[in-house]
Amino acid sequence: MSQAVATGVLSPRRSLADMIPAAALLIVFLAYPLGLGVWLGFTDARIGRPGIFTGLENYISLFEDDVFLLSVFNTILYTSVATVIKFGLGLWLALLLNNSMPFKAFIRAIVLLPYIVPTVLSAIAFWWIYDAQFSIISWALVKMGIIDHYIDFLGEPNMARGSLIAANIWRGIPFVAICLLAGLQTISPSLYEAAALDGASAWQRFRHVTVPMLMPILSVVLTFSVLFTFTDFQLVYAITRGGPVNSTHLMATLAFQRAIAGGRLGEGAAISTAMIPFLIFATVFSYYGLQRRKWQQGGHDD
Amino acid sequence: MAAVVIRDVEKAFGSLRVIHGINVDIADGEFVVLVGPSGCGKSTLLRMIAGLEQITGGSISIGGRVVNNLPPKDRDTAMVFQNYALYPHMTVHDNMAFSLKLRHADAKLIGERVAKAAAILNLEDYLQRYPRQLSGGQRQRVAMGRAIVRDPQVFLFDEPLSNLDAKLRVQMRTEIKALHQRLKTTTVYVTHDQIEAMTMADRIVVMHDGIVEQIGTPLELYDHPANTFVAGFIGSPAMNFLPGTLRNGAVETAGGQAIRVAMPKAEDGQPVILGVRPEHLKIGNGHGIKGQVSVLEPTGAETQIFVDTPSGPVTAVVSERHSFAPGTPITLEPRPDCIHLFDAQSGRHL
Fold first, then answer.
1. Which of A196, A209, A301 sits opposite B87 (nearest CB)?
2. Cβ contacts (< 8 Å) between B79 and chain A: which residues?
């Protein structure tokens, strides 16, 4: 026993050496690009030209840039509306899937489909669905006699924003539903039975048992969902490229547009860096605001 | 408080029938224990009383009212679950107050009821704790407190002690019995542990494979088991069974030994099973069941002797201390008034 412990303890030098591979990966692929991005944001670098330190100049000009301010608005709108609806529908779907029904495993697998299709493929499908001339939605509505001419989903700013949000919701629901379903399945059925005997109606059982028991996992899923949605790039870039007339740019697509397509690396890096405070705020809010409850702590017998 | 009447109750899960027409009358204020091996349907029966399982056939009434189609909350029963089913996100106080809050009882009444239940169960110091911060025995008491606060017509217990260690189980057993004596609420208690059943019950319902084998007071079941199943299930160590044939007022066992029995209501030559409890065997001198000692287990107060006989292993419990070497020939003499005879075919008591 004591021998096993003795051999199990590594010297500090050996421990540090063991950490090198992981640390190297993190530094090379995470810390260095992040640091470089932040640094580039303070320069006027362009593609092919290193650039010089310009201080906060990029940020100051961005604050007077209507396209950038609109992209911030779009990103917040996109994230908040999509997240609320994803969680509402995802929770509903999870509750449905949690019931016993025939072909349960099969139906649960099908629900995951939108999530396993590569984003760009589903984005192209949505592009087609939203097409001004070939939209299947418009076609169906016209055939049903509800409308008399095709809807221009992507041609008008608010319509385009709504369409993108709908595509993001479609894609995000499976993740939320499957995570929340996993959470629901950890709730002991006897809690519902006890609540039923205590006189709780179906709504009261949901309100007083399901919701509080689901809160810890909900907060983690919420955090991830907010991060993924806030930094979303693929859907918007594949469906609208930020158009019409820059009206649907998210911060991520605008950063790409300015830095890579436009060649102004410094400005693009500044836009990316400007996302960091929002992300930190969202993470802190959803993670610390919801996750650890007092009833989850303790557990020692005394 | 109310009487519970169970009439011809049946339960099927799809095509699988698990309860085949059960009749039990539980008097107002009675403590009835449903006991039987795993899968005998005792928990299912309890859950049907609570309303957590549909009743396939027959009827259950509580306090004269048929409850077959009433939802659990309208049956006025309170249940203590095996895993306690405490709401982990509520304090002890809130766990106990939950049902009253749902009924919109006023805060003063809730406070009084919870305080009273906490006092009965010694939980006053723990009211602001969460279930995770409690020991197993305390959680068990909170679960009972939640039931008491409701002041229901019937208490239902579903194997409430099986998650506790042996010492705590004995202590909680006494507490539950004391609680019943104090509150006098009709109680239905499910367990697979016959000692729990014997020590707590006013009456015991022995179940097996979805039917009732026998209903009676603990001592009735012990003294007059209706069949071999009840005889073997009640009592610890279990009753010894020796198959044999009745001849001239004695049972000739398969091993070729003859044991005299008193006045059986059976014919000569009938195949029977002779049953005798370990505590009704004493070490005799040449007359009785012969065999060799295989294992000796002294417990201090008494000694268990395991004996190999030609009819199979036989256990005896004696109060004297012995130190037989394994293989020692021994004769075990049954108390003549404590011999049970069962029909070999049906298992029924003769």
1. A209
2. 193-194, 197
B79:A213 CB<8 A: no
| Inter-residue contact A147 to A141 (CB < 8 Å) | yes
Query: So what CATH class is B242-343?
Result: mainly beta
Q: What is the DSSP string of B182-219?
A: HH--EEEEEES-HHHHHHH-SEEEEEETTEEEEEE-HH
- The contacts found for B101-107 with CB under 8 angstroms, 24 or more apart, are B102/A198, B102/A199, B102/A200, B102/A204, B103/A199
Tens of pLDDT along A213-242? 888 888 888 888 888 899 989 889 988 888
Task: Give A302: exposed, middle or buried? Use CB within 10 Å, 0-12, 13-18, 19+.
Answer: exposed
List the domain boundaries for chain B.
4-233, 242-343
In a domain, A82, yes or no: yes
Considering its fold, how many domains does chain A have in total?
1
Look up the CATH superfamily of B4-233.
P-loop containing nucleotide triphosphate hydrolases (3.40.50.300)
Nearest C-alpha neighbor of A78 from the set A151, A153, A152, A172: A172
Instruction: Quote the mean pLDDT of chain A.
Output: 85
ipTM value greater than 0.85: no
Closest Cβ–Cβ partner in B89, B102, B134 for A199: B102
A50-77: b or e for each residue (b if 16 or more CB lie within 10 Å)? ebeebeeebbeebeebeebebbbebbee
Question: Which domain does A271 fall in, by range?
Answer: 62-291
Which residue in A197, A301, A302 is closest to B79 by CB distance?
A197
The Cα of A217 is separated from the nearest Cα of chain B by a number of Å equal to 14
A156-196: pLDDT as tens digits: 888 889 999 999 999 999 999 999 999 999 999 999 999 99
